[in-house]
Design goal:
elongated, Rossmann fold, 16% strand, 2 domains
């Protein structure tokens, strides 16, 4: 199957959703970039909460339009409750009510090396983030799933290996510790000369604001914004789309 043929299979990307309008704007901008990268691909965005359409409604609309196949992609940075429980339950209901719709379920966006590139891009765009002796906090939303938090810890370790940071530690805005404020304070207590924070979040909103507020309160010199429509994130979306259609090997399966 060629990519031109693949483009006939619609992509339904399902983001978390937020009551904060900035979040949906950022998600829509990301998928506008995806459309620009692969013209002709039918890209639709749905949400788990707060914003319409919900994933089930989006898939039912596709089926009503006569689609026989779709790729559902969880637009999430880690695999946890939403990708392992919420969305599979939605897909089960759709498959039961619309059995003719062949749904391919893609992997979450992370982990993926290009997301590290996106983190570095946002840090490079953030005044004050770089400087001699800087340590870094990689701040994610956090999860009650330990394996999802472990992915963030491994991502922080890989950023440290890449440099130029003195040390990189993970932090979690909810459901796990350390919090961003605790991580910043901990690095200073261990002798860091300066601490910057990378927001490992897809879109601005409650968690991004919480990361920034806690980090600056503990003396962080800079906090980079959410990844948003960074070009690397759009590339990851298309990689996951191709993966779901069997066009590329699935990398790092054991790490998910």
């Amino acid at each position: 199957m060629s990519r031109e043929q693949d483009a006939g299979v619609p992509l339904v990307a399902v983001a978390h959703g937020s009551a904060d309008a900035r979040s949906a704007r950022a998600v829509e901008a990301l998928f506008d970039r995806v459309r620009a990268l692969r013209p002709g691909l039918d890209v639709r965005v749905a949400y788990l909460d707060h914003v319409a359409p919900e994933a089930e409604a989006a898939l039912r609309a596709l089926a009503a339009e006569g689609a026989g196949e779709a790729v559902v992609l969880p637009a999430l940075l880690t695999a946890a409750y939403h990708s392992k429980v919420d969305l599979p339950a939605v897909l089960d209901r759709v498959r039961e009510s619309r059995p003719w719709l062949d749904v391919h379920y893609g992997a979450t966006l992370g982990p993926h090396p290009l997301l590290l590139d996106a983190v570095e891009r946002r840090l490079a765009q953030t005044p004050g983030a770089h400087g001699a002796g800087t340590s870094l906090v990689l701040a994610s939303a956090g999860s009650s799933h330990a394996d999802a938090n472990a992915v963030i810890a491994r991502t922080a370790a890989e950023l440290e290996r890449r440099g130029p940071w003195e040390r990189v530690v993970p932090a979690f805005a909810s459901a796990a510790s350390p919090t961003p404020g605790e991580a910043v304070a901990g690095l200073y207590a261990r002798g860091a000369a300066r601490v910057a924070v990378a927001g490992y979040l897809l879109a601005p909103g409650y968690f991004a604001d919480r990361v920034a507020e806690q980090s600056f309160a503990e003396g962080a010199v800079a906090v980079s914004p959410a990844l948003g429509d960074a070009p690397e994130v759009a590339e990851v979306v298309l990689h996951r789309y191709d993966e779901a259609l069997g066009r590329v090997p699935v990398p790092g399966t054991a790490a998910r």
